[in-house]
Amino acid sequence: MVTGATGYVAGWLVKKLLDEGYTVHAPVRDPKNQEKLFYLNQIASNSPGKIIYFKANLLQEDSYFEGMQGCEIVFHTASPFINKVADPQRDLIDPALHGTRNVLDSANKTESVKRVVLTSSCAAIIGDARDLRSIEGGVATEENWNETSSLNHQPYSYSKTVAEREAWKINKAQNRWQLVVINPSLVIGPGINPKSTSESFNIVKQLADGTMKMGVPALNFGMVDVRDLAEAHLKAGILPNAEGRHVISAEHYSFLQLADILRSKYGKAYPFPKRELPKWMIWLVAPAAGIQRSMIARNVGYDWRVDNSKSIKSLGMKYRPVSESITDFFAQMVENKLV
Length: 339
What we know:
By secondary structure, this protein is of the alpha/beta class. It has a domain at 2-189 and 221-251 and 305-320: Rossmann fold (3-Layer(aba) Sandwich). Helix content is 40%, strand content 14%. The chain has helices at residues 8-19, 34-45, 65-68, 88-109, 155-172, 199-208, 226-238, 255-266, 279-285, 293-299, 309-314, 322-335; strands spanning 2-3, 23-28, 50-55, 73-76, 115-119, 178-184, 186-188, 220-225, 244-248, 251-254. The strands form 3 sheets. The chain has a 5-stranded parallel β-sheet, with helices on both faces. Strands 7-8-10 form a 3-stranded mixed β-sheet. Helix 1 packs across helix 7, helix 4 (88-109) packs parallel to helix 5 (155-172) and helix 8 crosses helix 12. The longest helix has 22 residues, at 88-109. The two termini are 34 Å apart. 46% of the residues are buried.
């Protein structure tokens, strides 16, 4: 079973499972919405696997119970990824926390389930880049937890942290099913649905549509191709020795480096930024852009580093270079006239 099956990350995971011949149970809000399910149905029609839809709602108790019956592996990918919200508790914390509880409560009631793979985030490992100053070597690993995010500061990161902690708590209270966690950095790359949007889509779009033509913040962070992330999920689900948390991240890049990669291919066709703005300037205008000044203070100008060696060793991950991921991602946007 794959929660959030129509999502950006889950779409590629469903494709991999179907291509491997698995039967995929896909809980969705409206199984009759053929437009929303078009791309998944297209994949299923060209694969040896089979997809079956079930009606479900992330915040509704026992909503996933029917779809989970007969499944050995549950992939819980459904969780909101949005940075600008009116009510962080309602829009981020509740869906992440209650959704995780609903899925895992159903796993507790479903005898066939042997393993749950949870999509968490590097945001549950490190809250702000400045936090790395308190970590030996300045590089975060699966041993680290985000201790600095809250409802009022980096609420998205906080939502991923509380949801993952809750998952481990529920897992440890029983002994029938195993929990394996995937902690990706920023996910980029082309989608199964070329017109689906994500927070990473919005970032890359703004690099090209003139929003950032005057310059970008000196932010750098880890990135991973969505296709590689799907592979990590598959391996976390089927490899017998997979256990614990896994940092899934290929390389770290800055906004300006991404712009430079795209400029090298598209030249002057788009107003890609050519410089990094001073931190004080970004701090000054942050509220007008809906960005917390505390986020600017604790991240701009600081290195962001994570160790992906466990995923390479335990899951056999081989990562695409970020230059390939960002180029493929942008090419899909151009092809579909989204920039």
